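Course assignment 3, question 2. Fill in each field.
Student: A.L.
Task: Predict the tertiary structure for the chain below.
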Amino acid sequence: MFTLFNMIPRAFEYYAPASVSEALSLLQKYGDESKVLAGGQSLVPLMKLRLVSPAHIIDIGRIPGLSYIKEEDNKIRIGALTTHHEVETSPVVKSKCMVLSEAESHVGDQQVRNRGTIGGSACHADPAADVPSVLVALDAEFKMTGSSGDRVVDARNFFQDIFTTDLRQNEILAEITVPALPPRSGSTYLKFERGAGDFAIVAVAAAVTLDQAGVCQDVRLGLAGVESIPLRALKAEEALKGKKPDDNAILEAAARASEQSKPSSDIRGSAEYKKEMVKVFVKRALKTALSRVS
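Answer field:
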């Protein structure tokens, strides 16, 4: 029987390291019995439900130097501890990568966006979450730091399974890098949800770049809620690249995205229903992104 008692986490030891090296030392010491806490918007609810019960919590939220947004060499570098609100409202992100700003605006509610971090959301790796699908669509890069040094992994290799990433036990995610979209690009993030702040039934991150003749030079599509990881709809992208994005090409891309997706039936709808919604929202997202090309 479920009682309010179950909403209280089991006892744990709490640590607030002042540096990355101190945090890595604690991870090395406690291994699988430890969990890293960033904003706490995913981990704390799981602990309260006792779905996870780490013996040691390592809170990296006070470590300086892990929260920033910088534009360098046509890329946007984002510190892992940058909050959703900071990414959403960043002038750099809005002007250079609107799709990421829009996705961040759908994360939870304002309180969650004020505390939760982009790195925490990426590491939690919920396939129905908003940010990971954008990171996959844009070929984001993830810089992890560990006792043996730094390593960089692209988004398609970072997300490995539901709630599973390539981040190793003795590592901390330090930075996420996304490309600034080139001129003559338009992008959007559209989400189909039961209510504001809910996880996606289906969501689509779309970015399109046209050449001077109006032909699709590049198109990127990331889907949330349709597989155990955020899905890069490569077959749908191929239907548009090198073509003028007329209605027929868009419909073909939407159909291919639906065929590639493999959603499961759950409380948010049947697999068949979700596949149909993929068609609808890929079509809408592409048309919205194209309307924003300038």
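Instructor remarks: DSSP finds twelve helices and 14 strands in the chain. The first strand starts at residue 13 and ends at 15.
Grade: pending
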